[in-house]
Amino acid sequence: MPDPNEIVFEAAGFAARAHRHQLRKDRETPYVSHVFRVCLVVRQVFGFDDPRMLAAALLHDTIEDTATDCDDIIERFGPDVARWVAALTKDMRLPHDEREEAYSRTLAAADWQVKACKLADIYDNLGDCRHFAPAERRRTAAKSRFYLDAIRENLPDQIREPLRLTEQRLTELESGITS
Question: Exposure pattern of 121-155 as b/e (b: 16+ CB <10 Å)?
Fold first, then answer.
């Protein structure tokens, strides 16, 4: 019987290779640290242990930010993970406002696993932006509020607590922003 966590280990290696040349906004931190932290938030903070969900958390930015396409994810990680990663992917071919609206609609209609991964993504980005200038922290907070509003639509019980934790983190960030 195969190890059910093998998909998580495979996804970690895949994400590390896919994001190997990318850095976070501070231009020092390897980008892959973000996807690893998102996976840790899903597991350690939110308490979800489904290996497919953890794999989706690790892979959530691969289609949007690397040369990876949905077929690569289907082939390596199966249709559930691919569907979740695709739902976490913005269509970069669209103009910004149209892209954000389409992404918001996708999040509102998404499976609860997608919503949990997006909450973990927001949770990590909120923690990662504390060293930003106030104007950039305000932009991050506004974008986070926009996504949280989408996630609240059709809110499944499984993510009520992750939503509360993420909203708490956002409130803490907002209360610390000074001009």
Answer: bbbbbbebbeebeeeebbebbeebeebbebbeeee
